[in-house]
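Predict both folds.
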Amino acid sequence: MPSPFPGMDPYLEHPDFWQETHNRLIIAIADTIMPQIRPKYEVAIDKRIYEITDPNESNDESLLVGIPDVAIKHQSNIPDVPTRSVATVSVTLPTTVKVPAPEKIKQTYLEVREMATKQVVTAIEILSPVNKRSGEGRITYLKKRQSILGSLTHLVEIDLLRKGESMPILNNSIQSDYRVLVSPSNRRPFAELYAFNLRDSLPIFPLPLREEDVEPIVNLPEIFGGIYDRAGYDYRIDYNREPVPSLSEEDRVWATQILQ
């Protein structure tokens, strides 16, 4: 069954589903464009690894190591104080705390490479929460992004997450829930921004390659519909619960009507 929403399904932004959705989208996009660009190009699935050590970068407590409260268990081991002693003994009991523990976060992305030279022609990124919140993950991604924008490599950047800070563009007045940025190297500093909201359909856009090549089409609605069906999200998602992140009041009323 298809998603009840006309475009992006906000329930897939939940941490329980997003990593799977991200990986499925990466593979589905690669499978879709490969027949359109062979044999001149290849599509490589690559990954980068973030090591997060700052607990302030995430609300996910799995990034921290919990220390069990052992105060009660150990109280019986405290030596008895002789009753004849006139001194007052103060026993310090431990407090349960959490310490930062490094966690490696793996994020996959696509590179379209020219077969003859192995040169990266187009980079395709699907943003993750680590890219949209302050911290090492965002800094690392922004450095790579700026490097691509200063090169001859085309950039396609897909943002299907409402929460967090969007990637910088010079026209900051554009506001939207989601966006796809297509930045051909030969048009910079200009780029095409597909800005859309929860109630809109996902965009269909061309993938930039060499100037002499026919640009393949990335049909996000079709790709998204396919992974939604293959993943069985229609029966795995509990649509009776509120989505995470939560919706605005206006969108919540609209979504309730859609789901009914």
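Second protein follows, with its predicted structure tokens after the sequence.
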Amino acid sequence: MRIPVISGLLLVSTLLAGCGEQAAEPAAVAPAQPALTLSPLGELALRPERNAPAAVIGRHEARISAEVAATIQALPVEVGQSVAAGGLIVRLDPRDAALALERAEAALAQAEARLAQADAQLQRAQTLRERNFYSPEALTLRETERTAAVADARAARASRDTARRVLDKHSLRAPFAGVVRERPAQLGELAAPGSVLLTLVAAGDPEVSAQLQPQDAEVVAQAGEWLFEAAGVRHPLRLIRVSPAMNPESRSVEARFAFAAAAPAVGQSGRLLWRETRPWLPADLLVRRDGRYGVFMAVDGKARFHVLPAASEGRPALVDLPEDTRIVVQGRHALQDGAALP
């Protein structure tokens, strides 16, 4: 069957018209605004745990030195041994000092004898002077002799006391109860004045000494909770003081702590731990604008970029804003300073 030409042309025209209507371009759609989410700084902030080098030390540490030159005669204590307060820890050869004391005591006896003689002569002269059997000049001479004898006796007594003190220095005793940490001296050696014979560390009430950076001193003082960590064990501490003076060599500030419970051995090294009281933001919440890191916050319906001067890429940043400040969380990367917030 042959289709008429006119009918075929009409059919083709109708089909082409239909295709033209389907190929028409759709109307343009406006891009959607990025969703924004804001949260208070207090809900986003971190309180990171900080640390500093620290060590357990005794409240007292004495380097016992010789005050006189003498041979070491006895060392009754060993390293690590406990010593009671007043206990003998070193004895030096006292023979020379004992002889010196004996000479001083003999000199004192002579001086006291001369003083007694001067007293007797003065009393006799005074009696004779009352009877006009003695001249004033002779009486004055007796008085002068007696005054000189008194001075000689005082000097001899001081020499005797000095000799006793020197003799006492040959027996060194512990100034406090403690533990011998070092003992460089050896039996039979000659101890020179000022030479360290042993080191004694107080056994009771040990403390923790921590070296802090100056900018952390106030933060540590306000932390409220401190721990000393050594060998995987944490010990609670109590703050004693933070020194206001800086060590010129290490450029650090010392903080002292007491143990709130059982304490490790003196000499143990570890770390002082404390938790920040200031708010810190996680590193993934920071935004970079014009080469500086900061956060967007909501102020009067607009996004304001707040620069954090100490912030750096990949690290939590200290925030100097009130904790009720609203921070832009979601959609922050597309914001610019001054953009209107919904």
